[in-house]
Amino acid sequence: MTNLKLNRFGKVKLINWTDNGDNIADPGEVDSYNPRYTVDLSAGYNLRNITLTLGGLNILNAYPDRHDPGLTESGGVWDTVQMCFSGAFYYARIGFKF
Q: How crowded is residue 60: how many other Cβ atoms within 10 Å of its Cβ?
């Protein structure tokens, strides 16, 4: 069994969290995040009552737009507004059926 997923994270505009703008007409500085795509892939094999799966999330290692670390909620150069900021994640899974 195989699974392939293409994920699209749309454009995001976010009022900067450090802004004190109380005026609705002038909300202050706005951070923009461009659209991003990630690809997830997994492949599994069934052998009687055991399932073995190898896979990865965000296998092309995509990241959100870089921003000033002092202005992100996470304190890093990538904010988690659209997707995770840690890049690709790979895994192996074993399942048992009783």
A: 12
User: What are 28-80's pLDDT values in tens digits?
Assistant: 677 788 899 999 999 999 999 999 999 999 999 988 887 777 766 666 677 77
Nearest to 83 by CA among 42, 53, 40, 38: 38
> Counting beta carbons within 10 angstroms of the beta carbon of residue 7, is it exposed (0 to 12), middle (13 to 18) or buried (19 or more)?
middle
Cβ pair 29, 19 in contact under 8 A: yes
Contact 26, 36 (CB under 8 A): no
